[in-house]
Amino acid sequence: MSEERQDRPDACLGPEHTAIQKRPYTDTMSITSIKPRRPYPRWQRRHEAILRLILEYPLLSRTEIAAATGYSPWQVSRIVNSPDFRERYERAAEYKHQEISRRAIERTSRALTRG
């Protein structure tokens, strides 16, 4: 049985980390390693600082955001790409745009009624 196990191409890797695929028109197999993905970080109150920075200064790079918040650029990237963050960013950006539009309409209407 140990001889059979050594002959198998995936003997050293666990089943969750390998995918054996047959190539078309050949008898050979290729092994591709599949890394399990880490889940995105869940929303935390500390992520609010990143959200505010991005809304206030949309042209900041991930490195600049990391320096300002104390996170590493890798952590900032994971946080910003998480579904929870994306959802909150969309809501906050929509609210911000509505507020800007409302203020512009109020100013315009005030200017028109005065003059």
Overview of the molecule:
There is one protein chain. This protein has 115 residues and is mainly alpha-helical. The protein has two domains: 2-33, no CATH class; 47-114, no CATH class. It is 56% helix and 9% strand. The chain contains five helices and two strands; from the N terminus they run αββαααα. It has a two-stranded antiparallel sheet with strand order 1-2. Strand 1 (18-22) and strand 2 (29-33) form a beta hairpin.
- Ranges with pLDDT <50 over ≥5 residues? none
Estimated helix fraction: 55-70%
From the N-terminal CA to the C-terminal CA, the straight-line distance is 94 Å
Describe the largest sheet: 2 strands, antiparallel
Order of helices and strands: HEEHHHH
Count of the separate structural domains: 2
Broad shape: elongated
Main sheet strand line-up:
1-2
Beta fraction of the residues?
5-15%
Q: Structural class of the helix and strand makeup? A: mainly alpha
Mean pLDDT: 77
Radius of gyration: 26 Å
Number of helices: 5
DSSP summary, beta strand count: 2
How are the SSEs ordered, and which strands pair?
Blueprint: H1 2-7, E1 18-22, E2 29-33, H2 47-56, H3 62-69, H4 73-80, H5 83-114
Antiparallel strand pairs: 1-2
Helix pairs in contact: 3-4
Q: Main traits of this protein?
A:
115 residues; mainly alpha; 2 domains; two-stranded antiparallel sheet; 5 helices; 2 strands; 56% helix; elongated
